[in-house]
Protein backbone atom coordinates (compact mmCIF):
# COMPACT_ATOMS: atom_id res chain seq x y z
CA UNK A 1 0.00 0.00 0.00
CA UNK A 2 1.37 3.40 -0.83
CA UNK A 3 -0.07 6.83 -0.25
CA UNK A 4 0.56 10.46 -0.96
CA UNK A 5 2.75 10.44 2.16
CA UNK A 6 5.51 9.15 -0.11
CA UNK A 7 5.48 12.58 -1.68
CA UNK A 8 5.82 14.64 1.46
CA UNK A 9 9.15 16.27 2.17
CA UNK A 10 9.90 16.50 5.95
CA UNK A 11 8.42 19.14 8.29
CA UNK A 12 8.69 22.72 6.99
CA UNK A 13 11.80 24.67 8.06
CA UNK A 14 11.17 27.79 10.12
CA UNK A 15 13.06 30.04 7.70
CA UNK A 16 12.38 28.08 4.51
CA UNK A 17 12.37 29.99 1.25
CA UNK A 18 8.97 29.03 -0.26
CA UNK A 19 10.41 29.03 -3.80
CA UNK A 20 13.27 26.62 -2.98
CA UNK A 21 10.90 24.56 -0.88
CA UNK A 22 8.56 24.12 -3.83
CA UNK A 23 11.43 23.00 -6.05
CA UNK A 24 12.67 20.44 -3.51
CA UNK A 25 9.14 19.23 -2.97
CA UNK A 26 8.68 18.78 -6.70
CA UNK A 27 12.03 17.02 -7.08
CA UNK A 28 11.08 14.56 -4.35
CA UNK A 29 7.78 13.82 -6.02
CA UNK A 30 9.38 13.48 -9.43
CA UNK A 31 11.94 11.06 -7.97
CA UNK A 32 9.17 8.97 -6.40
CA UNK A 33 7.29 8.92 -9.71
CA UNK A 34 10.43 7.96 -11.66
CA UNK A 35 11.16 5.18 -9.18
CA UNK A 36 7.68 3.73 -9.56
CA UNK A 37 7.98 3.79 -13.36
CA UNK A 38 11.45 2.19 -13.20
CA UNK A 39 10.10 -0.53 -10.89
CA UNK A 40 7.23 -1.16 -13.32
CA UNK A 41 4.71 -0.31 -10.57
CA UNK A 42 1.35 1.29 -11.30
CA UNK A 43 0.61 4.98 -10.99
CA UNK A 44 -2.83 5.53 -9.43
CA UNK A 45 -5.08 8.62 -9.60
CA UNK A 46 -4.15 9.85 -6.09
CA UNK A 47 -0.42 9.68 -6.87
CA UNK A 48 1.53 12.74 -7.90
CA UNK A 49 2.40 12.65 -11.61
CA UNK A 50 4.12 15.10 -13.97
CA UNK A 51 1.73 17.34 -15.91
CA UNK A 52 3.00 15.99 -19.23
CA UNK A 53 2.26 12.39 -18.17
CA UNK A 54 -1.28 13.38 -17.16
CA UNK A 55 -1.79 15.29 -20.41
CA UNK A 56 -0.56 12.42 -22.55
CA UNK A 57 -2.83 9.97 -20.79
CA UNK A 58 -5.84 12.24 -21.20
CA UNK A 59 -5.03 12.56 -24.91
CA UNK A 60 -4.58 8.86 -25.55
CA UNK A 61 -7.37 7.53 -23.33
CA UNK A 62 -9.91 10.06 -24.60
CA UNK A 63 -8.97 9.43 -28.23
CA UNK A 64 -9.38 5.75 -27.53
CA UNK A 65 -12.81 6.34 -25.92
CA UNK A 66 -13.90 8.48 -28.87
CA UNK A 67 -12.80 5.71 -31.26
CA UNK A 68 -14.96 3.16 -29.48
CA UNK A 69 -18.01 5.41 -29.61
CA UNK A 70 -17.58 6.54 -33.22
CA UNK A 71 -16.63 2.94 -34.05
CA UNK A 72 -20.21 1.88 -33.26
CA UNK A 73 -21.41 3.58 -36.45
CA UNK A 74 -19.93 1.55 -39.33
CA UNK A 75 -21.29 -1.73 -37.96
CA UNK A 76 -24.41 -0.21 -36.40
CA UNK A 77 -25.33 0.65 -39.96
CA UNK A 78 -25.89 -3.08 -40.60
CA UNK A 79 -27.90 -4.13 -37.54
CA UNK A 80 -31.23 -3.79 -39.32
CA UNK A 81 -29.88 -5.64 -42.38
CA UNK A 82 -28.08 -8.59 -40.77
CA UNK A 83 -28.73 -11.75 -42.80
CA UNK A 84 -30.18 -13.85 -39.93
CA UNK A 85 -31.55 -13.50 -36.42
CA UNK A 86 -28.38 -15.10 -35.03
CA UNK A 87 -26.07 -12.67 -36.83
CA UNK A 88 -28.27 -9.77 -35.78
CA UNK A 89 -28.15 -10.76 -32.10
CA UNK A 90 -24.36 -11.13 -32.27
CA UNK A 91 -23.92 -7.78 -33.99
CA UNK A 92 -26.22 -6.00 -31.53
CA UNK A 93 -24.18 -7.37 -28.62
CA UNK A 94 -20.91 -6.38 -30.27
CA UNK A 95 -21.93 -2.81 -31.04
CA UNK A 96 -23.24 -2.47 -27.50
CA UNK A 97 -19.90 -3.75 -26.18
CA UNK A 98 -18.09 -1.00 -28.10
CA UNK A 99 -20.31 1.59 -26.41
CA UNK A 100 -19.41 -0.02 -23.06
CA UNK A 101 -15.70 0.20 -23.88
CA UNK A 102 -16.14 3.91 -24.53
CA UNK A 103 -17.74 4.28 -21.11
CA UNK A 104 -14.96 2.41 -19.26
CA UNK A 105 -12.42 4.58 -21.04
CA UNK A 106 -14.18 7.90 -20.37
CA UNK A 107 -14.33 6.84 -16.71
CA UNK A 108 -10.59 6.06 -16.75
CA UNK A 109 -9.92 9.50 -18.29
CA UNK A 110 -12.08 11.19 -15.64
CA UNK A 111 -9.76 9.87 -12.91
CA UNK A 112 -7.22 12.34 -14.34
CA UNK A 113 -9.35 15.33 -13.31
CA UNK A 114 -10.96 16.07 -16.65
CA UNK A 115 -14.68 16.28 -17.18
CA UNK A 116 -16.44 14.02 -19.61
CA UNK A 117 -18.37 17.01 -20.95
CA UNK A 118 -15.09 18.66 -21.96
CA UNK A 119 -13.84 15.48 -23.64
CA UNK A 120 -17.08 15.03 -25.56
CA UNK A 121 -17.04 18.69 -26.55
CA UNK A 122 -13.49 18.26 -27.93
CA UNK A 123 -14.71 15.35 -30.06
CA UNK A 124 -17.78 17.18 -31.32
CA UNK A 125 -15.86 20.30 -32.29
CA UNK A 126 -13.19 18.28 -34.13
CA UNK A 127 -10.40 19.18 -31.65
CA UNK A 128 -9.93 15.56 -30.55
CA UNK A 129 -8.98 12.71 -32.83
CA UNK A 130 -10.50 9.24 -33.09
CA UNK A 131 -9.16 6.24 -34.99
CA UNK A 132 -8.74 6.84 -38.72
CA UNK A 133 -10.28 3.45 -39.50
CA UNK A 134 -13.83 4.51 -38.63
CA UNK A 135 -13.88 7.03 -41.46
CA UNK A 136 -14.24 4.26 -44.04
CA UNK A 137 -17.67 3.07 -45.22
CA UNK A 138 -19.29 -0.35 -44.71
CA UNK A 139 -20.64 -1.09 -48.19
CA UNK A 140 -21.69 -4.74 -47.81
CA UNK A 141 -22.35 -7.33 -45.11
CA UNK A 142 -18.84 -8.69 -45.69
CA UNK A 143 -17.47 -5.38 -44.35
CA UNK A 144 -19.01 -6.19 -40.99
CA UNK A 145 -17.14 -9.51 -40.91
CA UNK A 146 -13.93 -7.82 -42.00
CA UNK A 147 -14.24 -5.19 -39.26
CA UNK A 148 -14.48 -7.99 -36.70
CA UNK A 149 -11.62 -10.00 -38.16
CA UNK A 150 -9.17 -7.24 -39.11
CA UNK A 151 -10.18 -4.06 -37.21
CA UNK A 152 -10.82 -5.85 -33.92
CA UNK A 153 -7.80 -8.05 -34.66
CA UNK A 154 -5.59 -4.96 -34.99
CA UNK A 155 -7.22 -3.40 -31.93
CA UNK A 156 -6.36 -6.49 -29.84
CA UNK A 157 -2.76 -6.49 -31.08
CA UNK A 158 -2.46 -2.85 -30.00
CA UNK A 159 -4.44 -3.18 -26.78
CA UNK A 160 -3.03 -6.32 -25.15
CA UNK A 161 0.24 -4.50 -24.33
CA UNK A 162 -1.85 -1.62 -22.93
CA UNK A 163 -3.08 -4.03 -20.21
CA UNK A 164 0.44 -3.49 -18.77
CA UNK A 165 0.24 0.30 -19.07
CA UNK A 166 1.77 2.17 -16.13
CA UNK A 167 -1.47 4.02 -15.33
CA UNK A 168 -3.65 1.70 -13.22
CA UNK A 169 -7.17 2.70 -14.31
CA UNK A 170 -6.28 2.49 -18.03
CA UNK A 171 -4.53 -0.86 -17.62
CA UNK A 172 -7.49 -2.33 -15.74
CA UNK A 173 -10.02 -1.05 -18.28
CA UNK A 174 -7.93 -2.61 -21.05
CA UNK A 175 -7.96 -6.07 -19.43
CA UNK A 176 -11.72 -6.16 -19.58
CA UNK A 177 -11.89 -4.63 -23.04
CA UNK A 178 -9.40 -7.12 -24.51
CA UNK A 179 -11.48 -10.07 -23.33
CA UNK A 180 -14.47 -8.70 -25.20
CA UNK A 181 -12.43 -7.78 -28.28
CA UNK A 182 -11.33 -11.39 -28.74
CA UNK A 183 -14.97 -12.42 -28.99
CA UNK A 184 -15.47 -9.64 -31.53
CA UNK A 185 -12.55 -10.82 -33.63
CA UNK A 186 -13.77 -14.41 -33.63
CA UNK A 187 -17.33 -13.53 -34.57
CA UNK A 188 -15.99 -11.57 -37.55
CA UNK A 189 -13.82 -14.48 -38.67
CA UNK A 190 -16.76 -16.86 -38.22
CA UNK A 191 -19.08 -14.66 -40.31
CA UNK A 192 -16.49 -14.53 -43.08
CA UNK A 193 -15.92 -18.29 -42.99
CA UNK A 194 -19.64 -18.82 -43.45
CA UNK A 195 -19.59 -16.55 -46.50
CA UNK A 196 -16.48 -18.20 -47.93
CA UNK A 197 -18.32 -21.53 -47.75
CA UNK A 198 -21.25 -20.00 -49.66
CA UNK A 199 -21.70 -18.88 -53.25
CA UNK A 200 -19.16 -17.44 -55.68
CA UNK A 201 -20.81 -14.03 -55.22
CA UNK A 202 -20.39 -14.23 -51.45
CA UNK A 203 -16.70 -15.13 -51.77
CA UNK A 204 -16.20 -12.21 -54.15
CA UNK A 205 -17.92 -9.92 -51.64
CA UNK A 206 -15.52 -11.00 -48.89
CA UNK A 207 -12.47 -10.53 -51.14
CA UNK A 208 -13.68 -7.06 -52.15
CA UNK A 209 -14.09 -6.06 -48.49
CA UNK A 210 -10.61 -7.37 -47.62
CA UNK A 211 -9.16 -5.42 -50.57
CA UNK A 212 -10.72 -2.17 -49.30
CA UNK A 213 -9.91 -2.55 -45.59
CA UNK A 214 -6.40 -4.09 -45.54
CA UNK A 215 -4.29 -0.96 -45.93
CA UNK A 216 -6.45 1.33 -43.75
CA UNK A 217 -6.26 -1.35 -41.02
CA UNK A 218 -2.45 -1.30 -41.15
CA UNK A 219 -2.58 2.47 -40.61
CA UNK A 220 -4.52 2.00 -37.36
CA UNK A 221 -1.18 1.38 -35.63
CA UNK A 222 -0.18 4.99 -36.25
CA UNK A 223 2.64 6.61 -38.24
CA UNK A 224 6.01 4.89 -38.67
CA UNK A 225 8.15 5.04 -35.52
CA UNK A 226 10.45 7.63 -37.08
CA UNK A 227 7.46 9.93 -37.65
CA UNK A 228 5.69 9.26 -34.34
CA UNK A 229 6.18 12.33 -32.13
CA UNK A 230 4.73 10.73 -29.00
CA UNK A 231 6.21 7.23 -28.99
CA UNK A 232 9.60 7.81 -27.36
CA UNK A 233 8.15 9.55 -24.33
CA UNK A 234 5.07 7.35 -23.93
CA UNK A 235 7.25 4.25 -24.10
CA UNK A 236 9.67 5.69 -21.53
CA UNK A 237 6.66 6.23 -19.25
CA UNK A 238 5.44 2.67 -19.77
CA UNK A 239 2.18 3.78 -21.36
CA UNK A 240 2.91 2.24 -24.74
CA UNK A 241 4.92 -0.96 -24.45
CA UNK A 242 5.50 -1.84 -28.11
CA UNK A 243 6.16 0.64 -30.91
CA UNK A 244 3.76 1.39 -33.80
CA UNK A 245 5.94 -0.39 -36.38
CA UNK A 246 6.58 -3.45 -34.22
CA UNK A 247 2.86 -3.88 -33.53
CA UNK A 248 2.07 -3.46 -37.23
CA UNK A 249 4.62 -6.16 -38.07
CA UNK A 250 3.24 -8.54 -35.43
CA UNK A 251 -0.23 -8.03 -36.87
CA UNK A 252 0.85 -8.72 -40.45
CA UNK A 253 2.75 -11.85 -39.38
CA UNK A 254 -0.27 -13.20 -37.49
CA UNK A 255 -2.82 -12.34 -40.16
CA UNK A 256 -1.21 -13.96 -43.19
CA UNK A 257 -1.95 -17.47 -41.91
CA UNK A 258 -5.51 -16.52 -40.97
CA UNK A 259 -6.08 -15.21 -44.51
CA UNK A 260 -4.82 -18.52 -45.90
CA UNK A 261 -7.25 -20.50 -43.71
CA UNK A 262 -10.07 -18.20 -44.80
CA UNK A 263 -9.13 -18.50 -48.49
CA UNK A 264 -8.74 -14.78 -49.20
CA UNK A 265 -5.79 -12.94 -50.75
CA UNK A 266 -4.29 -9.99 -48.91
CA UNK A 267 -4.10 -7.26 -51.55
CA UNK A 268 -0.38 -6.53 -51.40
CA UNK A 269 1.94 -7.84 -54.12
CA UNK A 270 4.88 -6.91 -51.87
CA UNK A 271 3.76 -9.25 -49.09
CA UNK A 272 6.32 -12.04 -48.78
CA UNK A 273 8.17 -14.00 -46.13
CA UNK A 274 11.65 -12.67 -45.41
CA UNK A 275 13.73 -15.54 -44.09
CA UNK A 276 16.54 -13.28 -42.88
CA UNK A 277 14.24 -11.04 -40.83
CA UNK A 278 11.94 -13.83 -39.73
CA UNK A 279 8.96 -11.63 -40.67
CA UNK A 280 6.74 -10.84 -43.62
CA UNK A 281 7.81 -7.88 -45.75
CA UNK A 282 4.99 -5.65 -46.97
CA UNK A 283 4.65 -2.62 -49.25
CA UNK A 284 4.97 0.95 -47.95
CA UNK A 285 1.67 2.47 -46.84
CA UNK A 286 0.08 5.59 -48.31
CA UNK A 287 0.75 8.05 -45.48
CA UNK A 288 -0.74 10.91 -47.51
CA UNK A 289 -4.08 9.13 -47.31
CA UNK A 290 -3.59 8.70 -43.55
CA UNK A 291 -2.93 12.42 -43.12
CA UNK A 292 -5.96 13.31 -45.24
CA UNK A 293 -8.19 11.12 -43.08
CA UNK A 294 -6.74 12.59 -39.88
CA UNK A 295 -7.33 16.09 -41.22
CA UNK A 296 -11.04 15.40 -41.67
CA UNK A 297 -11.00 14.48 -45.36
CA UNK A 298 -11.62 10.74 -45.28
CA UNK A 299 -14.60 9.15 -47.04
CA UNK A 300 -16.93 9.40 -44.01
CA UNK A 301 -15.42 11.94 -41.55
CA UNK A 302 -18.20 14.49 -41.88
CA UNK A 303 -20.98 11.91 -41.70
CA UNK A 304 -19.48 10.17 -38.64
CA UNK A 305 -19.14 13.40 -36.68
CA UNK A 306 -22.56 14.73 -37.70
CA UNK A 307 -24.21 11.43 -36.66
CA UNK A 308 -22.43 11.55 -33.29
CA UNK A 309 -23.43 15.16 -32.60
CA UNK A 310 -27.04 14.45 -33.59
CA UNK A 311 -27.18 11.38 -31.31
CA UNK A 312 -25.81 13.48 -28.44
CA UNK A 313 -28.37 16.23 -28.97
CA UNK A 314 -31.25 13.76 -29.29
CA UNK A 315 -30.07 12.07 -26.08
CA UNK A 316 -30.38 15.29 -24.06
CA UNK A 317 -33.66 14.17 -22.45
CA UNK A 318 -32.08 10.88 -21.33
CA UNK A 319 -29.24 12.72 -19.59
CA UNK A 320 -31.73 15.09 -17.97
CA UNK A 321 -33.87 12.19 -16.76
CA UNK A 322 -30.82 10.38 -15.36
CA UNK A 323 -29.70 13.51 -13.51
CA UNK A 324 -33.20 14.06 -12.08
CA UNK A 325 -33.27 10.44 -10.93
CA UNK A 326 -29.83 10.79 -9.31
CA UNK A 327 -30.90 13.99 -7.51
CA UNK A 328 -34.02 12.30 -6.21
CA UNK A 329 -32.07 9.28 -4.96
CA UNK A 330 -29.69 11.62 -3.16
CA UNK A 331 -32.66 13.32 -1.55
CA UNK A 332 -31.82 16.79 -2.92
CA UNK A 333 -34.90 17.11 -5.09
CA UNK A 334 -38.13 17.81 -3.21
CA UNK A 335 -40.26 17.78 -6.40
CA UNK A 336 -43.16 15.33 -6.40
CA UNK A 337 -43.44 12.59 -8.96
CA UNK A 338 -46.47 12.77 -11.25
CA UNK A 339 -47.03 9.07 -10.93
CA UNK A 340 -45.55 6.34 -8.79
N1 LIG B 1 -6.06 7.34 -36.16
O1 LIG B 1 2.84 9.89 -32.05
P1 LIG B 1 1.80 8.94 -32.52
C1 LIG B 1 -10.94 -0.14 -31.79
C2 LIG B 1 -2.43 10.31 -34.18
S1 LIG B 1 -10.25 1.09 -30.89
C3 LIG B 1 -6.14 8.61 -35.74
O2 LIG B 1 2.26 7.60 -32.97
P2 LIG B 1 0.47 7.83 -30.24
C4 LIG B 1 -11.99 -0.99 -31.15
C5 LIG B 1 -2.03 10.32 -32.73
O3 LIG B 1 -3.17 10.40 -31.91
C6 LIG B 1 -9.13 1.90 -32.01
N2 LIG B 1 -5.10 9.28 -35.20
O4 LIG B 1 0.65 8.84 -31.43
C7 LIG B 1 -13.13 -1.09 -32.05
C8 LIG B 1 -1.15 11.55 -32.68
O5 LIG B 1 -1.97 12.71 -32.69
P3 LIG B 1 -1.90 13.87 -31.54
C9 LIG B 1 -8.41 2.95 -31.29
C10 LIG B 1 -3.94 8.59 -35.08
O6 LIG B 1 -0.70 8.27 -29.44
C11 LIG B 1 -13.16 -2.05 -33.05
C12 LIG B 1 -0.49 11.55 -34.04
O7 LIG B 1 -1.29 10.75 -34.89
N3 LIG B 1 -7.38 2.39 -30.48
O8 LIG B 1 -10.57 -0.26 -32.91
C13 LIG B 1 -3.80 7.26 -35.48
O9 LIG B 1 1.74 7.59 -29.53
C14 LIG B 1 -14.27 -2.17 -33.90
C15 LIG B 1 0.92 11.02 -33.99
O10 LIG B 1 0.97 9.61 -33.72
C16 LIG B 1 -6.67 3.17 -29.64
O11 LIG B 1 -6.89 4.35 -29.54
C17 LIG B 1 -4.93 6.63 -36.04
N4 LIG B 1 -4.90 5.36 -36.48
O12 LIG B 1 0.10 6.43 -30.96
C18 LIG B 1 -14.23 -0.27 -31.87
C19 LIG B 1 -5.62 2.45 -28.83
N5 LIG B 1 -2.53 6.87 -35.25
O13 LIG B 1 -2.80 13.40 -30.45
C20 LIG B 1 -15.36 -0.36 -32.73
C21 LIG B 1 -4.90 3.38 -27.89
C22 LIG B 1 -1.90 7.94 -34.72
O14 LIG B 1 -0.46 13.94 -31.10
C23 LIG B 1 -15.37 -1.34 -33.74
N6 LIG B 1 -4.08 4.32 -28.60
N7 LIG B 1 -2.74 8.97 -34.63
O15 LIG B 1 -2.43 15.08 -32.20
C24 LIG B 1 -2.80 4.06 -29.01
O16 LIG B 1 -2.29 2.96 -28.84
C25 LIG B 1 -2.04 5.18 -29.63
O17 LIG B 1 -2.67 6.39 -29.32
C26 LIG B 1 -1.87 5.05 -31.18
C27 LIG B 1 -1.10 6.28 -31.67
C28 LIG B 1 -1.07 3.80 -31.51
C29 LIG B 1 -3.21 5.01 -31.88
CATH topology: Ferritin
Neighbour order of strands in the largest sheet: 1-2
Overall number of strands: 2
First and last CA, distance? 47 Å
Q: What overall geometry do the principal axes of the alpha carbons give?
A: globular
Radius of gyration, taken over Cα atoms and rounded to an integer in Å? 23 Å
Order of helices and strands: HHHHHHHHHHEEHHH
The kinds of small molecule bound in this structure are: Phenylacetyl coenzyme A
State the CATH architecture.
Answer: Up-down Bundle
CATH class: Mainly Alpha
Largest sheet: 2 strands, antiparallel
Verbal overview:
- This protein has 340 residues and is mainly α.
- The protein has a single domain (35-318), classed as Ferritin (Up-down Bundle), CATH 1.20.1260.
- 63% of the residues lie in helices and 2% in strands.
- It is built from 13 helices and two strands.
- The chain has helices at residues 18-38, 51-70, 72-76, 85-110, 116-124, 141-159, 168-196, 200-219, 231-236, 244-262, 287-297, 301-314, 316-329; strands at 272-274, 279-281.
- Strands 1-2 form a two-stranded antiparallel ribbon.
- Helix 6 runs antiparallel to helix 7 (168-196), helix 6 (141-159) runs parallel beside helix 8 and helix 6 (141-159) packs across helix 10 (244-262).
- The longest helix is centred in the middle third of the chain and has 29 residues, at 168-196.
- Residues 59-60, 63-64, 67-68, 71, 98, 129, 131-132, 147, 151-152, 155, 158, 219-223, 228-231, 234, 240, 244, 294 line the site of Phenylacetyl coenzyme A.
- Phenylacetyl coenzyme A binds next to helix 2, helix 6 and helix 9.
- GO terms for molecular function: phenylacetyl-CoA 1,2-epoxidase activity.
- InterPro entries: Aromatic_CoA_ox/epox, Ferritin-like, Ferritin-like_SF, PaaA, PaaA_PaaC.
- This is Ring-1,2-phenylacetyl-CoA epoxidase subunit PaaA.
Amino acid sequence: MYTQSLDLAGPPQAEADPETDRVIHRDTRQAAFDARIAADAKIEPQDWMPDAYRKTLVRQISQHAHSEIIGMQPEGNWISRAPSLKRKAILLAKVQDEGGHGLYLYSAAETLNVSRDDLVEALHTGRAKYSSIFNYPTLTWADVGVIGWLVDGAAIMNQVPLCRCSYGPYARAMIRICKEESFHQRQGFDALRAMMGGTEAQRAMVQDAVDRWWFPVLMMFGPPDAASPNSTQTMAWGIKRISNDDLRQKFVDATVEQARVLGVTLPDPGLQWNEARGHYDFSPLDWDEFRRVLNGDGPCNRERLATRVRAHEEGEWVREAAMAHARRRNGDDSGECDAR
